[in-house]
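Long-time lurker, first post. I've been practising inverse folding by hand and with some scripts of my own, and I keep getting stuck on stretches where the structure tokens seem ambiguous. Below is the full token string for one chain I'm working on. Before anyone asks, I'm not after the true native sequence, just a reasonable design that respects the backbone. If someone could post their per-position residues I'd love to compare against what I wrote down in my notebook.
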């Protein structure tokens, strides 16, 4: 009878040690401990949020409403386009693009 008590005590202690090691591993590496093996929503919650949920985290972009910022960006865009045109790298005139040239061959 004493041997069965010692055996069961050993099993309990080894199970406790394994459980403690698993808990420590989960705490260190940020894993979720699920000893019962039941289904949980952790897999779903681990995924990236999409759509309006993500949009809620970002503040409203005020520069879209500021006419001075929009004017400055438009001015920068036109300046860059003018620079590209001077170098011959700008967009072609209407009807003279790559598709039109390809069609005429």
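-- Answer (accepted) --
I ran through it position by position. Result:
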């Amino acid at each position: 009878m004493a041997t069965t008590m010692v055996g069961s005590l050993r099993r309990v202690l080894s199970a406790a040690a394994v459980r403690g090691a698993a808990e420590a591993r989960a705490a260190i590496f940020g894993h979720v401990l699920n000893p019962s093996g039941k289904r949980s929503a952790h897999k779903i919650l681990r995924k990236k949020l999409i759509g309006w949920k993500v949009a809620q985290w970002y503040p409203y972009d005020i520069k879209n409403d500021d006419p001075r910022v929009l004017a400055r960006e438009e001015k920068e865009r036109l300046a860059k386009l003018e620079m590209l045109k001077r170098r011959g790298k700008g967009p072609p005139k209407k009807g003279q693009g790559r598709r039109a040239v390809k069609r005429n061959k």
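A couple of notes from the structure itself: The chain has two domains: 1-38, 47-89. The chain is about 65% helix and 0% strand. Happy to go over any region you disagree with.
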